[in-house]
Design brief:
heterodimer, A: TIM Barrel, 9-stranded parallel β-sheet, B: alpha/beta, Rossmann fold, 6-stranded mixed β-sheet, 4-stranded antiparallel β-sheet, 14 strands, disordered N terminus
């Protein structure tokens, strides 16, 4: 399983002529129990792959939405250990949807790379994205994850040159996460033509599926990216639904909210290429 | 060499201390380049540009010229006779970097980095600041070169460092108060990194201390090493010998590494860094990352950090906004682990006492940062005895701190 579950998911989506819907939520946001229900709701609403954010006090690559989600999660008792517990619980009811832990290096470093890889594999996690471990620094973690068959998903960005893409590709597994715009999560979106060229470059050099993320908020944007990539990542827009539920004094209502938003994103992504063929 | 690595060091050590960092930006097991992929190409470019600049006599000439005529270097080496007498032990010299233009050592580094930014064709400068000294120095150089400057500052610090905030505004800088988390230096640094990643094509990030992703710890150290080079020459001239001990305050550690580095090969010279002990290192309220922290990864480098069991960063506390940071430069982590330098702590209360003592005895109002170093100088002077010789870096002046100090002393001004 593990990295294989990711490949199988992309292959199945490709066979159906559509991009994968990759959905992000912060573990333990707004609280541990609701967070679990949100994950289940995501998968039922059509998320093909789930990225589970591990909360960190200093998320310097994230915009305001995910920063606040991390602080809510930490206040609710969230941690890397709790993130893995949530993964395990989700895996016990869902053996199909790949789970990717996305976070920052320090909590993983503190747990120990080997201990983390073992715990993540046992919890049924399929891959890991560590925002602040670029290819030059990820070898110690990569070795441990590889020993358990877990994928190391690396980021490629608009600043990743052709030559550097080879560095990124060499050691990537699962898929390549193409960051649509130089910026933090939830920022604006780059020009479609630039993104398309970046995705092509990543795909050609890595030979892996390429998912596009950062700044995808609406079903319309998701559809645009679904036409030019193998997967569309949506994070901040989902996390904002949790915030809205919390602000209305009803954190439990985030389950319904997420379900509705995820469903519309999923539909847009599933029908994106068919819509284009009509034109 | 007697200063060889202790066994168990994970990397092979080059022959001299001066050769660190290695090609991967490591000082032993510390340092590195832990940044988001978007920044990685830029960080690699910066390293190449710095290597070229170092080999370019014109770059060095311009840097030296500005240090002499704009900053006022060399800063004096001053025999603090009354402090020496007061403590009754070793002779105490103060390296007077508080006399620099803008009132602290920070400007040495800002000039170097802004010259690099110009070489790289960057048109916008950003910086983070805690006490505001680095922000003021950056805003000053940006005014001098006509570059737009944005300074990120925790909102707690904006409140407690009002004079510097106003100074930066006068200099034409835009101040962005950062409210996330505790609103101190680490939050300002997070926000500066977010801005940098968003405006990477046009923007140069002037980091204020010898920390962050490689090559920053190296280049900040190199720009600040003017302190130690001058000090070495001056003390040899004044005393005809090398000092026994160098002392400096440590936040991120740029003034200390600037003083220490040119002496690293001098085996007889001991080095002592003084971390901010806040309410005491046995309480949760301090900023002593070497004394009370563990190795981890934050803000681009692997170094000692204040963190909990889950690897979450713990808020630092210090009376001094300039030391209020939960990490430390990676070269200090390395010097600490190898034992080449040792590190002590000083509480808020001790720093306040040293602040007043220096003001009364020497007529020098120190910044709260070097007041920490001064508090330990008293102990070290006694330990060394009358034959001993100490050089302490007076890295900043205390004008910026008088309002905060008045508050702590229960006075209204």
């Amino acid at each position: 399983m593990t990295a294989d579950r990711i490949s199988a998911t992309f292959a199945a989506c490709a066979q159906n002529g559509r991009a994968a819907f990759v959905a992000y939520l912060m573990a333990a946001d707004p609280d541990i129990e609701t967070s679990y229900l949100n994950l289940v709701a995501l998968s039922e609403a059509g998320a093909d792959i789930i990225e589970l954010g591990a909360p960190f006090t200093d998320p310097m690559a994230d915009g305001v939405a995910i920063q606040k989600a991390a602080l809510r999660a930490l206040a609710a008792g969230g941690s890397l250990t709790v993130t893995l517990e949530l993964a395990r619980r989700f895996r016990s009811v869902n053996s199909k949807t790949p789970l990717i832990v996305m976070g920052y290096a320090n909590p993983i470093h503190r747990m120990g790379f080997a201990a983390f890889a073992r715990a993540a594999a046992e919890a049924g996690v399929d891959g890991v994205i560590t925002v602040d471990l670029p290819p030059e620094e990820d070898a110690p973690l990569r070795t441990e994850l590889a020993a358990h068959g877990l994928a190391v998903i690396r980021l490629a960005t608009p600043t990743t040159t052709e030559k550097r893409m080879e560095t990124v590709a060499n050691g990537s597994s699962g898929f390549v996460y193409y960051v649509s715009v130089a910026g933090v999560t939830g920022a604006g979106v780059g020009a479609e033509s630039d993104i398309s060229a970046g995705v092509e470059r990543a795909r050609r050099i890595s030979k892996l599926p390429v998912a596009v993320g950062f700044g995808v908020r609406t079903p319309e944007q998701a559809a645009v990216f679904a036409r030019i990539s193998d997967g569309v990542v949506v994070g901040s827009a989902l996390v904002e639904e949790v915030r809205a539920a919390v602000e209305q004094g009803d954190p439990g209502s985030s389950v319904k909210r997420i379900s509705v938003v995820a469903q519309s994103l999923s539909n847009a992504i599933a029908s994106a290429r068919a819509v284009r063929s009509v034109h | 060499m007697t200063n060889a690595a202790p066994s168990g060091s994970s990397t092979t050590r080059p022959n001299t201390w001066a050769q660190w960092p290695d090609a991967n930006g490591r000082f032993g097991a510390f340092g590195g380049r832990y940044v988001a992929e978007t920044l990685m190409p830029l960080v690699l470019d910066l390293e190449q540009e710095y290597i070229r600049a170092k080999a370019d006599p014109k770059f060095q000439e311009e840097f030296d010229w500005l240090l002499e005529h704009y900053v006022g270097r060399p800063s004096p080496m001053y025999y603090a006779e009354r402090l020496t007498k007061h403590f009754g032990g070793a002779k105490i010299y103060l390296k007077r970097d508080e006399l620099n233009h803008t009132g602290a050592h920070k400007i040495n580094n800002c000039i170097g980095q802004v010259l690099l930014a110009r070489r790289m064709g960057k048109t916008r400068i950003i910086a983070e600041t805690g006490a505001g000294q680095h922000g003021v120095a950056t805003a000053t150089i940006c005014a001098r070169f006509g570059l737009p400057c944005v300074v990120f500052m925790g909102e707690t610090d904006v409140e407690r460092q009002k004079p510097n905030v106003f100074r930066m505004k006068l200099l034409g800088a835009e101040i962005v108060p950062v409210s996330s988390d505790t609103g101190t230096l680490k939050d300002a640094m997070n926000e500066a990194l977010r801005d940098w990643v968003t405006n990477v094509a046009t923007t140069f990030y002037v980091i204020g201390t010898a920390a962050g992703p490689h090559p920053y710890p190296m280049l900040v150290r190199d720009f600040q090493s003017v302190i130690g080079r001058e000090a070495r020459e001056q003390i040899l001239k004044a005393e005809g010998r090398l000092p026994d001990v160098l002392v400096a305050a440590i936040g991120g550690g740029s003034n200390a590494i600037g003083l220490f580095h040119p002496f690293l090969e001098d085996e007889s010279v001991k080095m002592i860094g003084v971390e901010a002990g806040g309410h005491g290192v046995d309480t949760p309220m301090h900023a002593a990352s070497l004394t009370g922290g563990l190795p981890g990864i934050l803000h681009g480098n692997r170094t000692y950090l204040l963190q909990d069991e889950d690897g979450q960063i713990i808020d630092a506390h210090s009376i001094s906004a300039g030391l209020d940071y939960p990490g430390i430069g990676p070269e200090h982590a390395f010097l600490h682990e190898t034992g080449r330098a040792t590190y002590r702590t000083c509480t808020d209360k001790e720093a306040l006492e040293a602040f007043q003592l220096c003001t009364r005895l020497e007529g020098i109002i120190p910044a709260l940062e070097p007041a920490h170093a001064l508090a330990r100088v008293g102990d070290i002077a006694k330990e060394l005895g009358k034959d001993g010789l100490i050089v302490m870096n007076m890295c900043g002046r205390g004008d910026k701190d008088i309002f905060a100090v008045a508050g702590h002393l229960g006075m209204k001004i």
